[in-house]
Sequence to fold (822 residues):
Amino acid sequence: MSIPLSWYLILAATLFCVGLFGVLSRKNAIAILLGVELMLNAVNINLVSFWRYRDPAQMAGQVFAVIVFAVAAAEVAVGLALIISVYRQRKTVVADEIDLMKW
Amino acid sequence: MEKIIIWLLPLPPLLAFILIILFTNKNRELSHSIAIGAAGLSWLGSMVVFMSALGVKEFGKHIFGATINWLPTGVTWLKIGVMIDPFSAVVVFFVAWTVLAIFVYSIGYHNFGQPKGDQDVAGIPPHGAIVTDKHGHQHSVPSIEPMYSRFFAFISLFAFGMYTLVVSDNLLTLFVGWEIMGLCSYLLIGFWFGKPSARNAAVKAFMTTRIGDVFMLLGIAFVYSFTGSLSFRDIFKPEMLHALASTPAFFGMSAAGVIGLLLFIGTVGKSAQWPLHVWLPDAMEGPTPVSAMIHAATMVSAGVYMIIRMFPLISAGWTAGMPLNTTMSVIAFIGAFTALFAATIAVAQNDIKRVLAYSTISQLGFMIAALGIGAYVAAAFHLVTHAFFKALLFLGSGSVIHGMEHGALHTGDHSADLQDMFNMGGLRKKMPVTFWTFLIGGFALSGFPVLTAGFWSKDEIFTEAFGNGHLVVFIILAIAAFMTAFYTMRQITLTFLGEPRTKAAEHAHETSWTMTVPLIVLAIFAIGFGWVGIPEHFPDIGGILPNWFHEFVGGTLAELPKEAEFSWVPLVTSLSVALGGLSFGWLAYRKVKSPEDDKLQIPLLKHKYYFDEIYDYLFVKPAWWISEQFSYLFVDRTVIDGFLHSVARFSLFLGYIFRNKIDKPIINELMGDGTGNVVKSSGFGLRKIQAGRIQYYMVASMAMLVLFALLYYFLIRSM
Fold:
């Protein structure tokens, strides 16, 4: 147990920030989706490391992480499908140009 | 049995009225059959009641009567009921006969069976129709009255009013009948409402009698407030009369006196006594059967009937031989004055019906005067005989006018006034039945000695007046009687004797049997009815027939009035005024051919002492002035309208204020438009954040998250 919890947390925070930056700055909708995946995995690191350091007897952290994988997989499937659908309609995957809901 | 018949007596004419008005209006024959059938039923009932009344010994003490409770008045009831006592029995007798005669006569008078006139319209007397006979000749013949059925409906209602009045045992239902007759007189005088004169006459009759009715109603209210009952039997109880006579009211008169006077004013209006006599002559505008109805069977007889009926009240505290009390003096004065006053006017009238109208006023004056001097039986006797001979005379005059119309249609000359006696003459040969019956009626009116009914009733009035020492009344009535005989003979001479003075009179024709049969029936009564009242002390023939009328009708009063002592003075007077007047009338008018030869066409008499003009000046013009200048222009236009206008202006001002100062700026602009504007502009500003770019939303979400996290950290945690 040489590596303390805080390292993991810093790693997770860094990973989250990288993901957030990707989501906010990239124009490509697929890249935004990639950023979202990074943020989800940052959360997973948090969940697993809290479980390992705080309460290893319980399985809740691992179970949550598995659920997040499943949800992320479903989300990517739906998200990619949406993007392909939008692309077929508008011939673009640039998020700024997809402004159907604008006033 | 009799009681049921008495209750039912007025009903058939009322049913006839309703049936004709509602159902049979289109069918003339059915309408007059219903009306005459109803009159016949009432006639039959009246005769049954009269005959059974004759069969009752001392009928005055055992009268027929029945009452029912009608209106609850606290713990007591206002009762209404019917009653036939000796006096109302004889009245019902003459009403039944005259009504039936007039109904039958009306069929002929309104030309039943004749064709419809081309130009006839409702409300105008029929003009006549042109028919072509089988040889191709054209004749003008009388045409049927356009409102034939309506006429029968109205006279049926009229008869209902009279029967109701006569069988009533209380002042209330009597007054109801009284007012129904007032309405019917209005409807029937104005029957030919297309003529302005008829319209005006109808209004005049209604208004004038209304004056009397108001006072009568006051009298009735006074009786009720004093005695708590309107039934004759209650009011005429000796103790009640004594109480009424001994209670002082106004002007030094007793309560009985004041009530009597108020009721008498009702009679003055209804029976056309001076000074409310003006409506009756104008009432001649109605069809002639209506005149007969008003003058004999119903209206004016009702007035005299009522005041004779109230005699016990009027004479309360008075017994024969005493000086008259105030009310009786007033009644005697009005009666005697009217008798003479109307007789003088009648002398100068040329219209055959107007002469009769004034003679009615005069004869009613006789009755009223007789009652005023306490001659109860004489007044009742004259009422009955007068009803018969005046119905006869009116129907006779209608027959004459009808014959003249026939002549006018035959010759085609419509220029002459067919009611003007100076356009007649020589009709005795053309219309024999009418002539003889009219002669009988005229002689009865004049009091032709011994034979006619009028002689006996008038003689009784003279005897009573002389025998009880009322010499002034006696002399006035004697003069009036002389003039009566005079103008009656003038009328007969001008109408029937001599030679025809116009083509219409030359070609006049006797009328149909429906008109002559009633004349004959009434002529029999105009002679025969006098014989039931021959005084027992009359020389030679007195006592052959018992003085039934005096015994019978006198029995109505609590004690049988004494017959006046026989005296030669009134008898000689009566004989001389009747015969003198008749012969003088004949002598004066047998040579007269035109109004210019008539020395009695004095303007003062011709214009009826200018009473119409005086009333016009005194009452009608001021009433116009008040309604026009005061009520309309001042009160209505200036005061009331002014007030209303200022209210309206004030409302307008308030409305202006509310609209322009409150509604428009505050409600509309500030609140209504303001809300909209705020929403609009805020929406306009806020829509900019809806950019549609997903990453903007995300940045905004993040920024807010950070903001709230900072707020939470610094504000909430630090507390």
About this structure: The domain at 5-94 of chain A is CATH 1.10.287.3510 (Helix Hairpins). Residues 15 and 78 of chain A are 23 Å apart (CA to CA). The mean pLDDT of chain A is 89. The interface with chain B takes residues 20, 23-25, 32, 95-96, 98-103 of chain A (CB under 8 Å).
